[in-house]
Amino acid sequence: MLPSLRIKEDRSSGTQNSPIMPTLGAGLTMVYKKIAVQIPAYYNSKTADQNGSWKIGIGLGCSFR
After folding, report:
1. Stretch 16-45: mean pLDDT, rounded?
2. Any long-range contacts for 37-44 (C-beta under 8 Å, 24+ apart)?
3. Is the pLDDT of residue 39 over 90?
């Protein structure tokens, strides 16, 4: 499981939601020496104007092992 912060655009005409929200993804992590590359998949829930869908992301980090 890969905790992340997701940045989203809120185009609603009413109350604005926060542009940054925490989310939890599942995916692969590959580590080479001290460099970590992650390929998570996140689910975007269904809204009034969009169906729910899975989105693939990519992340780069440092391994402390």
Report:
1. 88
2. 37/61, 38/2, 40/2, 40/4, 42/4, 42/6
3. yes
